[in-house]
Amino acid sequence: MTSQTVTKLDRVPRQRVDKFAERRAELAEAALQTLSELGYARTSLREIAQNSEFTHGVLHYYFSDKVDLILCSVRQYKTRCVTRYDQITADADSYDALMTGFVTVLAQTMREEAHMHRLWYDIRSQTLFETAFRADVAELDKSLENMIWRIMCRFAELTGEPQTLPPPVIYAMIDGLFQQCLLKHLSGDAQAIAQMQADVRLVLSKITRNPDATAEV
Amino acid sequence: MTSQTVTKLDRVPRQRVDKFAERRAELAEAALQTLSELGYARTSLREIAQNSEFTHGVLHYYFSDKVDLILCSVRQYKTRCVTRYDQITADADSYDALMTGFVTVLAQTMREEAHMHRLWYDIRSQTLFETAFRADVAELDKSLENMIWRIMCRFAELTGEPQTLPPPVIYAMIDGLFQQCLLKHLSGDAQAIAQMQADVRLVLSKITRNPDATAEV
DNA sequence: AGAAAATTTTGACAGGTGTCAAGTATTTAT
DNA sequence: ATAAATACTTGACACCTGTCAAAATTTTCT
User: Fold this and answer.
1) Could you write out the DSSP letters of every residue in B105-116?
2) Each residue of A116-173: pLDDT tens digit?
3) Residue pair A39/B133 in contact by the 8 Å Cβ criterion
4) What CA–CA distance (Å, rounded) separates A183 from A122?
5) CB atoms B173 and A168 under 8 Å
6) Is residue B162 within 8 angstroms of chain A, CB to CB?
7) Which domains does chain A have, with CATH numbers?
């Protein structure tokens, strides 16, 4: 239930609502940090509160229960994640530039946000058991699929060739490569990132280019 | 520590050792069932014991701690999983037969062992946080990679064309497709399996066939 | 300034967790 | 058959979990 939230939205002045929402966001942020540090299985409300500037009781003032809090966190994570590669798409004015831009941001993401992404894979796995997260996780997954698809469309524009694989397939493939890389990267494999960059280049070159293009060019 | 185990292996008669190992396997099986039902985060030792014919205390007689038990379970899961597609590879005597055989077993696995596979993805995600599982999970992942690679080698034999993508890349791609399908399948999407079969066919046909082959044939 | 409302803290609750030691029952060996 | 080794159960321990109500604090409004 989010009855508390609804009540507030109904009759308190505008400023209040903003403050309430801000604090929710603040606590959701603390939850994100905790989840990315400990993983879903070991994340408790008291641990989350300790990563904020409040005590554990306040969580039930701003969220109806633990699920409500985590859902809020996931949505917050999404808004940051989903436009990550759009600048690259806009800037690139050639096939090679787009390719280089893409794998560069992939590497950067892996280096700087590895913990946040392990949280994502952890939550997505929870979805296999817990129905509560399914709708939000599916929506986020779809957004990521769209993000990848926008890149592929730009590739298609630049080559003049049509797309050869549907959005879900390309996303699944890139996601699989990213996930394997994350595993190796967090296990201490120093070459994992460079290897993934090479792998993505290889796969995309087979996908984005027309089968006969290599012979023509 | 598995000091208890070692002690037994050292000095008790052969029959005892077998019985000890058998019971370990039996309890590991109960753990597998529980994990695949509840997920890692909600699996407790008492719950595992309830899925066996013993009480919770016995777990500490056969395993040094919870981690020891789960590692044992994962290894047991592996031995069943890793040769799943080998028969298909041996039987198929044409490109189309191999392709059909592969996607058929993929679908069968998804239908019959969805719960076991969600456990696998759950445990693999835990590995991103918990170092204790890393070595075993990495080994299992490698075995699965090899299994997929054996299939690709058979494809290469049948087409006469060389492989175009290295083992880790192909595995990551297929795994990504499988994982997405599992998510949809468990969310109630009735077309998920058929869609995955089509997707795998599409991707493999782009990978296993020479770029110019379509023009030739 | 004082009353009212919103916010935060504190402390408790019922129940669950892994672990382990002290028992009881069962099997094995002599 | 009796003693010893093995297998299993029971019950406890210290601690952690989500939740919530009551009290204390802070902010807001008049």
Assistant:
1) HHHHHHHHSHHH
2) 999 999 999 999 999 999 999 999 999 999 999 999 999 999 999 999 999 999 999 9
3) no
4) 12
5) no
6) no
7) 3-70 (1.10.10.60), 82-208 (1.10.357)
